[in-house]
Design brief:
The chain is built from three helices and eight strands; from the N terminus they run αβαβββββββα. The chain is α+β, with helices and mostly antiparallel strands and 140 residues long. The chain has a single domain, classed as Jelly Rolls (Sandwich), CATH 2.60.120.10. A hairpin with a 5-residue loop joins strand 3 and strand 4. The radius of gyration is 15 Å and the shape is globular.
Length: 140
Amino acid sequence: LDADNYETDPCLKEIRRAENYSWMDIVTIHKDKLPNYEEKIKTFYEEHLHLDDEIRYILEGSGYFDVRDKDDKWIRIFMEKGDMITLPAGIYHRFTLDENNYVKAMRLFVGEPVWTPYNRPADNFPARKQYMKFLADEAH
């Protein structure tokens, strides 16, 4: 995607339309830009899941999303300017900055945003059970 022109990027516009991403904002994760920076960084790195998909589009900077594979092993995904990721509801994950300690990202949602992280263990939520069923179905 064209992160330099995200306001007018037709590809982003089409993704938002097709996926019904009706809400968005922009967050900057840097010690000089994010209130309660140290606390937030620790929260982001705590392994958790959400009950809704988490969609992030990197506009500047870089960082890592760590997710669990079907065998519960970590997979590290490097994200940089122009990258977009959708973490499905119910997947355990965490986020950390790289050595540059800076990322500016667009957060996208279907409908109103819900920010609640549920730290592991959170296996009893329907979103987690649905995600685990998806993994089992994909294995067949």
